[in-house]
From TrEMBL:
<dbReference type="InterPro" id="IPR036457">
    <property type="entry name" value="PPM-type-like_dom_sf"/>
</dbReference>
<protein>
    <submittedName>
        <fullName>Serine/threonine protein phosphatase PrpC</fullName>
    </submittedName>
</protein>
<dbReference type="Pfam" id="PF13672">
    <property type="entry name" value="PP2C_2"/>
</dbReference>
<dbReference type="InterPro" id="IPR015655">
    <property type="entry name" value="PP2C"/>
</dbReference>
<dbReference type="GO" id="GO:0004722">
    <property type="term" value="F:protein serine/threonine phosphatase activity"/>
</dbReference>
<dbReference type="InterPro" id="IPR001932">
    <property type="entry name" value="PPM-type_phosphatase-like_dom"/>
</dbReference>
<feature type="domain" description="PPM-type phosphatase">
    <location>
        <begin position="4"/>
        <end position="258"/>
    </location>
</feature>
Amino acid sequence: MKVKACIYTDAGKSRKVNQDSVLVKVANSEKLGRISFVAVCDGMGGLPKGEVASCKVVRSLENWFHEELSLMQDLETERLWDVIEVSWRRLIAKISGELRRYARHRKIDLGTTLTALLQIGDRYMLMNIGDSRIYVASKGEVIKLTKDHSVLQKKLDEGKITEKEALNDREKSVLLRCLGSMKTAEPDITRGVIKNDSTVIACSDGFWRTMEKTELYSMLCPQMCVTSEDMLDACKKLVKKAYDRNETDNISVAALCMELGA
């Protein structure tokens, strides 16, 4: 498998601080083959020190990738994924406790979203807390792999608003889960199989809020991702589109293009 990757993050037109943090890691393992890991954390803009929360999570995930994952390489496939899930849940509980202690000591509230995907071979595991998202572009379509933990998503699930009404809903940024001061920090963790050449797109809400799936596919489908430079250029153009549509938030996007036959 061949993997190409890029990251693009921007503070935006009206924010002085970029509270997003982004991570992409690609490695070759003698026993597991090509491994890719992507994560986006969006510090909560309505609270102080969102950048501290998002950076803490990304650094912890990077340490996990280098220090813990390498110790699991001798495990059988099914056992490996079970152990990774247990390890992730333990790590998130630890980070959540550390952020709450940090907040109590400084008498502040802080929080961050988290979305992350780990690929080993043709299989993946992802986790999600909040409303950052992961999409996969493959075989003519874009599929959203995550489900938002937000008031807006709850309204949509209950049929109280339509997708069109959701674009201008006052509560579009109100979260039901986050990592930090909010006690509810249990991540959704799911597994899947990568069946075709695919591009994984991880992003903050500033990126996806004004974007159509057709635009993501036209710019970031595997056929368009010839090089990492092409991918980065496409991400920059998509971010510009978001700002042209009056998006004011920080925007972050990370993309992984996976070629199964390479």
